[in-house]
């Protein structure tokens, strides 16, 4: 059986599956987890340890149709002023509960459009963060940058604040495709921003590009990838466009008939992946690529790669704090997500309360299942003996558990010397394989296409 027929047999082209940036996934979060949990979990962090922090800025000057993030449009800066004050007030509340001596291994500003903030707001917010949680010696401060919403003053402010990694969203450079997703962004504007970032000493540039966009062909994607390669980003995420109009109403503006079919999505991904590999980029997990000197490539090589809400990471911290509306915090005990509506989030902070509105407390086998899923997503491999040791299990019992959950996929995987490995010809189905270990799967309609 050829590879395409095998993937078809397993349902790759007509199945939805989570991206597993967390386990359990966000759709199963419940409102019974709230601020009381967050307070207790913060207090349990080991004093003097390193944590990571995600800051969500949900505002955009325009709402791109393809985006499914929690965002809102604004044509003036009034809501930004109020929002930054609320972020700083949330930090003040954290100070009452966090142990002493914590430092940031990673700080990431996402959105929305973080670069919608003014230079003064950038400095005020970063100062408030570092007054509570200074950067660790080798810490990374990254910011998502919209080339259409940035200037030299804001780049200077970000560099002054300590940003040392920038993430540039590209999506696609073809004007027709950009028009079809409501995101106009020229190659020249993108190239100029990257040049300006490097000019002020930002040494690490990440970029995102999408496959599976409306009107996209292998030829058009090849052209966009070639343009991106000419800018030589240090790492790239080649994400599949997630068409979820039932969750993101703005995606209803995209013509469904223009979206490539599932088997075409696989060809698009493989076209981009081949081009990145040919230019010396190391494949990372299911959809990332990095130059060999990049820390992500090194993490993949030494099996320390992890998964978080931004995709793949080399962040060693066990705790991720979430600042802002809809931000998600991860603790050893579970997940806590702030209220997703900005008004509800702001009201909670104004009342002197932490803003968690829902989440999940780890139950029973959650941590072990999460480890199996992350191992597959990061390494395409399950080290049975190591995981059994870490969870105080008998390796034979764990092997039996794995086999029972894999079902028909078991015959397509490789088993050798205590390792269960996804072979290269089956890696396109990794999300589906990982889904077999999800105890909360109740249909997959809430998720995007598996390829």
Major sheet strand order: 9-10-8-7-6-5-4-1-13
Q: Provide the β-strand percentage band.
A: 15-25%
Q: What is the typical, i.e. mean, pLDDT?
A: 94
CA-based shape: globular
Q: State the low-pLDDT regions, or none.
A: none
Number of strands: 19
The description of the largest β-sheet is:
9 strands, mixed
Q: How are the SSEs placed, and which strands pair?
A:
Blueprint: H1 3-9, H2 35-43, E1 50-57, E2 59-60, E3 72-73, H3 78-95, E4 103-111, H4 119-132, E5 135-145, H5 152-161, E6 165-171, H6 175-180, H7 187-199, E7 204-211, H8 218-230, E8 235-240, H9 262-278, E9 282-284, E10 288-290, H10 295-301, E11 306-308, E12 311-313, E13 320-323, E14 328-331, E15 334-338, H11 342-350, E16 356-361, H12 366-379, E17 381-383, H13 384-390, H14 395-406, E18 414-416, E19 419-421, H15 430-435
Parallel strand pairs: 1-4, 1-13, 2-3, 4-5, 5-6, 6-7, 7-8
Antiparallel strand pairs: 8-10, 9-10, 11-12, 14-15, 15-16, 17-19, 18-19
